[in-house]
Amino acid sequence: MCGIVGYLGQKQALPFLLSGLERLEYRGYDSAGVCLQENQQLRIVKRKGPIKVLEADLQSLKFNSQLGIAHTRWATHGQPNEINAHPHYDCQHQIAVVHNGIIENFQALKQLLENEGHHLVSETDSEIIAHLIEKFYQGNLEEATLHALKLLEGTYGLAVISAQENKIIAARRGSPLILGIGHDEVFIASDVSAVVEYTKQVVYLKDGEIAVITPQGYQLQNIDGEDLQAQIEEIKWTVDQIEKDGFKHFMLKEIFEQPQTIANVLRGRLFSDQIKLSLHFNPRKVKKIIITACGTSWHSSLIGKYLIEKIAHLPVEVDYASEFRYREHLINPDDLLVVISQSGETADTLGALRAIPASETLGIINIVGSTISREVKSGIYLHAGPEIGVASTKAFTSQVASLILLALYLNKERTGNLDLELVKNLEDISRQVQIVLDQAKQIKKISQSLLSAKNLLYLGRGINFPVALEGALKLKEVSYIHAEGYPAAEMKHGPIALIDQNMFVVFIVNHGPIFEKIISNMQEVKARGGKIIVICDLENDVLKKLADFIILVPSTSEELSPLINIIPLQLLAYYVADAKGINVDKPRNLAKSVTVE
Ligand code: M6R
Known about the structure:
With about 600 residues, the protein is α/β, with parallel strands linked by helices. It contains 20 helices and 25 strands. A hairpin with a 2-residue loop joins strand 2 (about 30-40) and strand 3 (about 40-50).
């Protein structure tokens, strides 16, 4: 949830620490701080608020240090304020720690430390780590850190420095951490985006690994201090991919990237006569599929259920990861567990993957090298590039495109059949998505009518019911307007009571067997004075009469329609939020990667 960076090298540490924090700000941004080692002293400066507040205050201070750590926080234990911000000192200000994750036994450890005379100042669970290291410190930082780590229950990605030693200790258990390897310098970060500008060579720490970084280089160890071999990997993403590309916000840039990102999912996998996925299970043996995920990824899972049941004729269950992980797991040996996560780090999704005793697991993940991607037996990477906007957009369509491929693949492998029309339409889908994006100006105009709305209903049926859920989530996340998604026919079972002249109802309709039924739902809304926005692949006189606004989208197979229908909903949410002056990429109370339960 939070971001960590660290530097040890020949150059000044502060410029990297600040630029690294800025890159990670999307992970957490309620306070930030740095700690630099200088003349055998540690100096911590931290501030509440966004990183620019910290940056402004640091300008008046002089530093000369080649060693430092820094952190940007999204509060879990204690208020977002300067005291709770990281880094945290020990009693003597000789040790400083930055930490991501949650220490579950922190109350017991805090009590123990206070009984021994330690004075803790913050409400955080993280501060105890600095004091535990102080407790064991006898002139060797890695030894003291290893001692301390053995007492911690819970998760951490952390970095520790001391006033007396020219080194950083970094450790990972359940919270991501990487080393960026430069010339005579080593960077630490909780996400590669922080270091990509400085180096392409990275080492992904695995759970249980500790890195000891000195001016001579770095060495990995396990918790018992035994040396481990490091594997250097090359980052393929460029700085350009991470930057906004001229768009006002990352969210808008990412919405507009979708023709490309959908094509990336299909490249090398979709062929006119076959689907190529390198999966390590036998598709013919699978009897049932269980998909689990959170948030937007849960919405794509619901679409996955529809797709796999319709195309591959296999039963699919979908569950919120946060619920599924704690339920009775009635798994059979022939069941396939699919986990979907953009970040590959979502705590509940990872928890479900670890808790559910499935013999075959498949991850649909964006971030290469993320924890979930390492722990599943088979995987489909989205190749969507970094998604910086907190509201997930391009990852959603890439997940849906992956699920279409999976459904086609399963059917082909199990029956030998491939739906050639679907394949043909899939080949054309990026072009059709671009046609919707080309209507952005018109959608922006429509969005202005929603500025004073307080409540919206999003209604869809079949495969477009999850699209309604996702459209409503996008709007509430970034515009703070209350919105709910429902299956259209459910409206009369309750939500219809809400409809009056102040209520906007967004209908997602495809021309097909249930088109007329949705028209009846629209009539019910109209009769009660509600305002209607329709996303539809067909415009007729009845629709024109009923709807206040129609957004006409290209026609495709019903199975592919979510890829098209979600685009206007993403744009509507974005333009409403932007017009309201909201920081769209970092809406309040949300973080990009939810690595706590
Ligand atoms: O990284 P993940 O896909 O596992 O994240 C799951 C949710 O936290 C995420 O989709 C969240 O709901 C987003 N804010 C949606 O825009």
